[in-house]
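Ticket #4471: structure export looks truncated?
Reporter: QA, pipeline team
Priority: medium

Steps to reproduce: submit the single chain below to the structure queue and open the exported record.
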Amino acid sequence: ERLAPGFWRQAILVGARIHPHHFRGDRPVCRRRDDGGILHRLRHGLRGEKLKKTDAGLIPNTWIVNLFGDAADFKNGINFSGDQKGEKGIPTIDVMNMYGMDIYVNYSKLNRVNKDISKDSDYILRKGDLLFVRSSLKPEGVGQVSLYRENVEPTTFCGFIINARFKSPIFLPEFYVYYFRSDLGRSRFIGASRVSITNVNQ
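Actual output as written to the record:
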């Protein structure tokens, strides 16, 4: 077992007050209580670097603080009519595909949309994209986040979903899935508004 690559750095980037998790691959396999020194090591690093003052407090000189809104590009999914939905066309991730047994998009029962989308389009998903449910009939459904892994063919996403694509490879997408699935992360994402059909915007 080892701490996931980039875990400490990612934790300080979002400023989350969380207990560290051990990972096997992308799955947490155990959790331990804060022993009084974990949060100190989380914020100050493990290599004895000099510290600098930031909005997140004192952190090592080589670390950075970045807002999630500045770290990624955001895009709403495609819109289409009922007549375009069927057995032909491009695989399209819908809200029902956002709920699976792990942190990844569930590819079972993918709908197809008969719509011409270029393979170079920003609507084509890439490995590491974070997908958020932006509209749901139930308040608890909005804000659900899942991670996209490469599909066997180019895949897009529907208009009820927002795609967040990191601008730099320094960010660890798996970390952000766990963070935004936590109570703290979800509340910060969706805010405090509640209506009959809940929506969040970019």
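Status: closed, not a bug. The export was complete when the record was re-opened. Leaving a note from the reviewer for reference: Residues 1-9, 11-35, 192-197 have pLDDT under 50 and may be disordered.
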